[in-house]
Amino acid sequence: MRVLLVDDEAEFVSALAERLNLRGFEAQTATTGVEALRKIDASPPDVVLLDVLMPGMSGLEVLKQIKKDHPQVQVILLTGRGSWDGIQGVREGAYDCLMKPIQIEELMQVMADAVKANRQNQAREGE
Amino acid sequence: MFNWLKQKLTGFFGSLREFPDYAESPERYKALRRNIVILMLVVTILPLVLMGLINHYLYRQTMHDEIVQPLKILVNKTKHSFELFLAERLSAVSFIASSHTCAELADNNNLGRIFSVMRKEFSGVVDLGFLDPNGVQISYDGPYKLQGKDYTDQDWYKEARVRGSYISDVFMGYRKLPHLVMAVERSVTGVCLGCVLRATIDTNRFMELIASMRLDPSSDAFLLNKHGVFQTPSKFYGQVLETYPMPLPPLSYEPNVLEKKDMNGRDVIVTYAYFESLPFILMVVKPRSQVMQAWYTLKTEAFFVFAIGVIIIFLVISKLTDKLVKRLEESDTRREVAYSEMQETSKLASIGRLAAGVAHEVNNPLAIINEKAGLIKDLTEFTPDFPQKEKLLPLTGAILQSVDRCRTITQRLLGFARRMDISVEMLSLNEVIEEVLGFLEKEALHRNIDLQLNLAQDLPRIASDRGQLQQVFLNILNNAFDAVRDGGQVAITSFEADIDTVGVSVQDNGQGMTQETMTHLFEPFFTTKKGYGTGLGLSITYGIVKKLGGDIRVSSQFGVGTTFTVFLPKRALALAGE
């Protein structure tokens, strides 16, 4: 599964990416919204892990752009601030919203669910 | 006096100015009440009294004038009648004296004829006589035998000789009956020089004139001469020729009024007038009480109206002030309560905002620690034969556990900040309690806790927030479960507290709380669960219940147990400004 991690905290994304790689994921990182969009355009991942609060382009803006250009890419939001951002994000098309700090087991579960849901959707559309 | 009033007024307005001051003693309201009553009484009754007094005097003056004026007119009229009566008769005598010769007047027959004509024309004339220059009455006609009498010693004769004409006071004379004499000296020169014609007037005619004044029986009218001798009889003060027992009034030719006490002690109004050309005073004496009767009646009625008015004013002011001050006191108390609640709420709200900020700021570094520690753990785990693997794994495990604890805290902090969102629905409190107990049943079973449910079956449904209430009862029940030992007892009771309120009490037989703990119970970050409590549970609970318009009461005895009672309004307050 290909994952793009987007967060302005480079230390956070690098560590998490390595952990996911250890678990067999193909994890890439981006520290700004612009960089993230560029990487998605170049090669769309299965799942984008997106921090809501970032300097410059905010997570919600990035989310909108992703949903516009690549509706098949599943987005899971990360927030340190509470569920309001999450509700907003899910309304905009995010699959789920997780509170930082995240537990890796929970994250993997949600990502698996997201991809599964995506496949089901595509299957339904295909029928 | 002025200083006192000033002080009182300053005190009064001062107490108004100081109005929004809380924590005042009950004496303040007493003083306020007293000051308002005094001030209102002064401003209402003082003008009333002033107006009453002014009216009293004006009215008395008017009444007095109205009573006195007719009396003056009457006296004046009667005085004129007297003057006219006497002047007419004096002119007649004067005319006879000048129009006849001495010889004609000295002849008894002639004089008799003149007298009979005169008596027919002028009432009150008793007799007519002619005196020679020696003062001897040489001719006379009338009912008495007075021919040949010598009058040289009599005052009236002397006066007539000096003045030419004279009207005497009333006197007895030779006939021993009260009468008065008018005498005219013949002014013709010659042998007749010094002859005097005189006529006698009886006093009956005077009495008729006085009777024509038609005075009431308690009043008196009479004629005095200038020496205060009665010329006509008086009802109360003496007979003819007796002396008037009181001092004579000051000279006044116009009718004048005096108010005095007579010698019988009666308050009387004396109306009098001096005659201008005659030596008489006409006097009317009326008892004052009778004259002023109408005035006294009016005065009494006015006084009663005034007294009743004052009583009513006093009662109304007193009642109104009571009500006003009571309202004031109530609103003060309400304001005080609202103020402290507001303070509490704003304190909680600012703590909430702070908590949310802290949680957010802490979460990011926490996430980094989490991932770095996780990575170390992963590397240790995933690398076979990693040196000191056994030592590193528990270390990273401990770091991750601590991060997890921090996460719990920050999430609760965020929950604390978020707790203000309320969505109200109609719900059954019993249902909410049962739902919450669903979470705890396993623990109760596991720890062998005796759960006693006393839910009122007829408990009315209330309008409130289900989610918030769940959190409230979950928190309180969690605390109760934490407080009791295994095998302890927790009793939950729901009841209708009053017409607007329902209540739920949670009673445990746990360790109870110290006074110190009770004091800080609802403060954020205060906890007795060292190591695993955030100190936010009850603070959040308290905030929610307050938000829903309810209240929490706690009673606890150290070593015996604790009872939390939550009161909730049947209709959650519409919370303005939130």
What does this structure look like?
The complex is a heterodimer of chains A (about 130) and B (about 575). By secondary structure, chain A is α/β, with parallel strands linked by helices. Chain A has a single domain (about 1-120), classed as Rossmann fold (3-Layer(aba) Sandwich), CATH 3.40.50.2300. Chain A is built from five helices and five strands, in the order E-H-E-H-E-H-E-H-E-H. In chain A, strands 2-1-3-4-5 form a five-stranded parallel beta sheet, sandwiched between helices. The longest helix of chain A has 23 residues, at about 105-125. With about 575 residues, chain B is of the alpha+beta class. Helix content of chain B is about 55%, strand content about 20%. In chain B, the strands form four sheets. A five-stranded antiparallel beta sheet of chain B has the order 2-1-5-4-3, with helices on both faces. In chain B, strands 11-13-14-16-15 form a five-stranded mixed beta sheet, covered by helices on one side. In chain B, a hairpin with a 5-residue loop joins strand 7 (about 255-260) and strand 8. The longest helix of chain B has about 90 residues, at about 295-380. Chain B starts with a helix and ends in a 9-residue tail after the last strand. The interface between A and B is medium-sized, with 22 and 27 residues.
